[in-house]
Amino acid sequence: MSNTAEAVVFDHDLSGGEAGSERLIVGEKIRFSEIISALSVALDITQGHPQGHCMRTALIGMRLADVLQLSAVDGSALFYALLLKDLGCSSNAAKMAYLFGADDQLVKRSGRMIDWTKPGQCLKHCWKHCAPEGNTVDKLLKIAAIARLGVKGGQKIAEIRCQRGAEIARMLLLPESTAQAIYDLDEHWNGRGNPRGLQGGEISLLGRICCLAQTVEVFFTAYGIESAMDVARQRRGEWFDPQLVDALLGFKNDANFWDQLFSDDLPQVLSQWEPDDAVLLADEACLDRVAEAFSKVVDAKSPWTYQHSTRVAEIAVGMAREFDRPATVVRDLRRAALLHDIGKLGISNLIWDKPARPTPQEYEQIRKHPAYTQQILEKVNAFKTLAAVAGAHHERLDGSGYHHGYQADQIPWAARVLVVADVFEAMSANRPYRDAVPYEQIYQMLSADAGKGFDSDCVNALIRWQKQNELEPRVEAQLREVERLLAEL
After folding, report:
1. Are 20 and 329 in contact (CB under 8 A)?
2. What pLDDT, in 10s, does the model give residues 222-264?
3. Does 349 map to a domain?
4. Which backbone phi and psi does 34 adopt, to 5 degrees?
5. Is residue 304 classed as helix, strand or coil in its secondary structure?
6. Which of 228, 245, 278 is where one domain is finished?
7. Are 324 and 439 contained in the same domain?
8. pLDDT by residue (tens digit) across 273-328?
9. Exposed, middle or buried: residue 476 (CB in 10 Å: 0-12, 13-18, 19+)?
10. What is the rounded distance in angstroms from the CA atom of residue 454 to the CA atom of residue 403?
């Protein structure tokens, strides 16, 4: 993902009057698949995959479905399972970074390239990736800690990931067969997969297709078609359903199909594989569910970010009501707030969970996350304005913010609200290297910078709303999440 996002020019008045009365989402008949395809990129970067991994996996899986002549109902369920197979992936990011003492994204990506059921391959992987900046003793200590987890420990980590993904799929009101496929993603034909060790036909057919398709995509993208087919053959009857491997090999020589996986417009290519009689359109309630679901993916990445997005949304909505804005605008602002940190999924937990202030180099990585947010969200045509607002949550009136360095008249009202809500919520919570700041102290800091960094009206709206509603800080929830993480390790 590039480090910059294209600036969006706001052509409405930002200085007063009816500013802030415009919708952030503009469009009719928004396809649910368009939204999910775009947001699947966030899952790609969480797993350390190149952009488009989930969409390419979906293309492979849907081609298999075509060969198998799945029904439209099953095809639609499979379509979303393939795109959303990694919904639970953020739930183990902190664990992987802690266990390996390494970049969780790199560990996850490289882990997809080995057969982790083979002890020799696992040991080589651990030796390469454990404590990469440490000495031999550091590496051995990390490897010993991973070994102590044993098979059951690994199954537990996989189970949490699979359960979380299935739960979020249900939140989106997708078919139960979609949720089941996500839950079965890492089960193997020979019964040596995770989390339940299901065997053969015990594994849902859609789950078996997802398992094969994702592995083929990883090797195809990294090494080409021959390597991908070799892995499928080698794991036939072990990881993969033999019938599915045979179906895959049947279109190995279809060069036109495989060339499509390199398309610059994967969403358009993928849309051709969505079952026509099962196309879903996103109404207002659906947009709410999508924002809520992906906020859970974001907030699960670290115990320190637990509930951050939902709290920012609650605060931003409260502030917006102080301005008496239209309900439709407030609803859009809530969605932007829920999704504002989706770009954080592209930054390693080694940085987010570090028990010390970030170094200048690490801070440069952190500063990229609003750009990532904007790039992901603006892949949905109807989300262009929402994407720009969400991506502006670290801008400041005096131009000292990031990632665009906007100044006052370039920052729309909705983004000004989001900036203040985000700062207030973040400061009132713990971070790995500091305790929460008391509310009264935050009020003083915001007021001192009102009119310079922060919009004065937004600061006043926040203070009025907070004193009326007395929202409790999320410190206790954070500490419970930290304790849960340590218990699982």
Report:
1. yes
2. 999 999 999 999 999 999 999 999 999 999 999 999 999 999 9
3. yes
4. -65, -40
5. coil
6. 278
7. yes
8. 988 766 788 999 999 999 999 999 999 999 999 999 999 999 999 999 999 999 99
9. exposed
10. 16
Give the pTM.
0.91
Cα–Cα dist 100/156, whole Å: 17
Q: pLDDT value at position 3?
A: 45
Q: Long-range contacts made by residues 395-399, C-beta under 8 angstroms, separation at least 24? A: 395/419, 396/452, 396/453, 396/454, 397/451, 397/452, 397/453, 397/454, 397/455, 398/452, 398/453
Q: Which of 472, 425, 146 is nearest to 295 (CA)?
A: 425
Q: Which residue has the higher pLDDT, 142 or 1?
A: 142
Q: Give me the domain span that covers residue 72.
A: 32-91+160-278
Cβ atoms within 10 A of the Cβ of 428, count? Answer: 21
Other Cβ atoms within 10 Å of 244 Cβ, number: 22
Q: Both 232 and 302 in a single domain?
A: no
Q: What is the CATH number of the domain that holds 350?
A: 1.10.3210.10
The answer to whether residues 454 and 396 touch, using CB atoms and an 8 Å cutoff, is yes
SS3 240: strand
* Domain closes at, from 217, 250, 278: 278
Q: Tell me the mean pLDDT in the region 337-361.
A: 95
Q: Which burial class, exposed, middle or buried, applies to 16 when counting CB atoms under 10 A from its CB (0-12, 13-18, 19+)?
A: exposed
Which positions are annotated as active-site residues?
Answer: 344
In degrees rounded to 5, what are phi and psi of residue 69? 55, 50
Burial (CB count <10 Å: 0-12, 13-18, 19+), residue 268: exposed
User: 202 and 337: one domain?
Assistant: no
Which residue would you say has higher pLDDT here, 187 or 22? Answer: 187
